[in-house]
Amino acid sequence: MKIKELDLLKKMKHKITPTHPRANSLVIREKLVEGFNNGIVVPHGLIAHGRGEAFDYLLGEKTTKFAYEAEKVAVCLMLLSKKPIISINGNTAALCARDLVTLSNVTKSRIEVNLFHKSTARSSAIASILKKENAIVVLGLDNKSKTIIENISSNRKFVDKNGIMNSDTIFLALEDGDRTENLVKMGKKVISVDLNPLSRTAIVSNVTIVDNIVRVIPNMIKIAKQLVKKDKQYLLRLVNSFNNKENMHKSLLMIKKGI
Ligand code: PTJ
After folding, report:
1. Is 170 helix (H, G, I), strand (E, B) or coil?
2. 37 and 162 part of one domain
3. Gap between the Cα atoms of 164 and 186, Å rounded
4. What is the mean pLDDT of the chain?
5. Whose CA is nearest to atom 25 of ligand 1?
6. Integer Cα distance of 108 and 163 in angstroms
7. Together in a domain, 145 and 46
8. 45 lines ligand 1 (CB under 6 A)
9. Which of 30, 117, 124, 227 could form a disulfide with 42 if both were Cys (CB 3.0 to 4.6 A apart)?
């Protein structure tokens, strides 16, 4: 456990020790509750986390070898892209703001705040924590560069014309299916993180990572630091030999085994 997480444990109302069998899971919940109290996470985000937790429980709360393979391919895709971008929502900001900024630096990806339950106050609060973690530019806040993705009814349709709209690869997590489907239709490569391999987002993405965001980002940072030294051909080989449907199917079998 990191120092920040140990501090969080100490602050918790119901005292638990780092050796508690559910300590990690309780810390994640606490981060989301803290995010909710700070206006970063919406109540719906707490419910969404509960769904994710159930799948994670069945996966043994570990990165499977199939998820790791998808994380590796996701890094390759980001390194090969001309304009990669990371889309950030309330839950992901509350759970791993620092790591998301690090990943954006290592993969030279931009960052955009994009919310389902959109509010200016929450976008600004999320941008502030990202900036506190040394993000230099955070897109998605400037109304002047706002544009719309057609055929999406939710507020996720509002994107930055210099960000998600003009990017070639989009990394997103805890996303709704409508926007994922539309981004893929627009010809963008979509990398998604979703513990539920049956979700529309998981099914339509080009690379689906069935793993918990709190493990995904640190893994991808480590992988990116190694792969950034490799040549384009090496990265391309990894991307071309990856079969997303097959990989997701294996994750689903792991979940079945968990039951
Ligand atoms: O901050 P906002 O306004 O953009 O809203 C964010 C939420 C999460 C509320 C919004 O995107 C939403 O409603 O998401 P969904 O449609 O419920 O999808 C969330 C998906 O993420 C579900 O399939 C969950 O299984 C999955 N999930 C939840 N927690 C995690 C997760 N996947 C990976 N890591 C997690 N920690």
Report:
1. strand
2. no
3. 11
4. 95
5. 52
6. 13
7. no
8. yes
9. 117
Q: What's the pLDDT at 226?
A: 98
Domain that holds residue 218: 65-258
How far apart are the CA of 238 and the centre of ligand 1, in A? Answer: 28
- Render pLDDT for 114-123 as a digit per residue (tens, 0 to 9): 999 999 999 9
Q: Are residues 115 and 147 in the same domain?
A: yes
pLDDT tens digits for 96-139? 999 999 999 999 999 999 999 999 999 999 999 999 999 999 99
17 and 137 within one domain? no
Among 41, 58, 75, the domain-final residue is: 58
The β-bridge partners of 84 are 169
Cα-trace Rg, the chain = 18
For residue 174, the SS3 value is coil
Same domain, 178 and 249: yes
> Is the overall model pTM greater than 0.90, yes or no?
yes
pLDDT band (50, 70, 90) for residue 5? confident
Give the CATH number, domain containing residue 190.
Answer: 3.40.50.12640
Alpha carbon distance 216, 220 (integer Å): 6
106 shares a domain with 81: yes
Tell me if 156 CB under 6 Å of ligand 1. Answer: no
